[in-house]
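Action item from last week, closing it out:
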Amino acid sequence: MMGTTPILILKEGTRRDRGKGAQTNNIAAAKAIADAVRTTLGPRGMDKMLVDSMGDVVITNDGVTILKEIDVEHPAAKMLVEVAKAQDQEVGDGTTTAVIMAGEILKRAEDMIDQNIHPTVIAQGYRLAAERATELLGDLSEKVGPKDKATLRKIAATSMISKAISADREHFAELAVGSVLAVAEEVDGVWQVDKDNIQIVKKQGGSVTDSEMIDGIIVDKERVHTGMPTRVEKAKIALVNAALEVKKTEFDARIAISKPEQLHAFLGEEENILRGFVDALKKVGANVVFGQKGLDDMTQHFLAKEGIFAIRRVKKSDMEKLAKATGARIVSKVKEIEKADLGTAALVEERKIGDDEMTFVTGTKNPKAISLLLRGGTEHVVDEIERSVEDAISVVKAAVEDGEMVTGGGSVHTHLSLGLRDYAASVGGREQIAIEAFATALEVVPRTLAENAGLDPIDTIIDLRNAHKAGKHRHGINLYTGKVTDMRKLDVLEPVRVTRQALSSATDTAVMILRIDDVIAATEFSGGAPGEGGPGGEGDFE
């Protein structure tokens, strides 16, 4: 202010929150996001029904799917959504765990801010706690490798125990492990798994147990002409990225025909062009054609006469998978195709799946081409199966690549919490308070598991602490009996990467939010204080 004249630095309508007000608002928004997915955690977690503006329905308990579907507006809340996305991208599972951990870490920080502990001191304490927790995590890990198929199946089954398909998790665990091991390869002593080599195809209808693994590629298309064979053995496959039809001119043109002979010659020339395409394919020995673009009716007729199996308008991603699997090269000019451009497969056949015809390419040149055909009674069921199977594939991939696993059921988080309390005493200073708060925040995982199972969270946490103090580091919550039990005996296992990534992303985001003491919004986002229905308010999720 200069005298009584205000100096306007920010654009009119800009909203600004400073100091504790900004921190409280940001933390409230983060807690609201965490509360939105909290009830989905664990085997007794519930599902969410999400309806978008178009009326499309998604039913899931997958944390990242829920947060992607919610139209989050508050900037701090968006940062917590990014935690879920990062967890999903790096591990593929544990998204709900990461988000509720971040929310709880911030909740504990709010109490310390009220005690006038500076946010940078809290942030430093949280950094130290996360580093120490990661070290302690290494002490808990056990070895696992690609040959431990039974253990990998248990890891896959654990990731699906909270999903809608938990009753059939053994069947899908077998599929997940089989597909990952089929595409895994050892490079310089390190195992690598490329998930892009695993094709997932959904088809509504049938039972969930009808889902199967196919040694090859599935194309959700049928042959273009009924005169073509439905089954081709020892297939020579041509992949064509060109329209097998007469091109339309790109400019206006008129053709004046005054005699019947001219019309006949014109049509004959069109036919010769189309026949030339087929002759070129026949000459190199192709008996199966996958076209990315259109196929003229006349071309279809010629292909059928030559006994060539053909499909049109194949997706680009499927064409790339076919090229990788069969060894074929995608060609843009049919008349320049050579024998070296063809791929091979033991069998190409059309099968009826439900009400639709699909093409199966099996016995391919590249043995790392694997497809999973997922079946289910309704569209929503098949979609949820896909999400669950992708999570299972991701955790098996992480276990194979890292070669490490830990027990679940809240056992790891309880052990880390107790270890951090002992560590806090050795640090001293105000950071000690932050480390102790971080340790308490980690117990949100077993506490939430207990709450969702209808158990008393306080008694459960006390029982867990006592078990771990007695040296029972693998003990977690048996959510069906309510007892604290050895999770190794219950086969509740998960890759170390799930917890390690959750610790890292939750801590980084919490520290970033804590260090914000000034929020300047150029355009005001709708909402208000927590509880008023705005972003950060609980009304968002009711």
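Closing note: Residues 527-542 have pLDDT under 50 and may be disordered.
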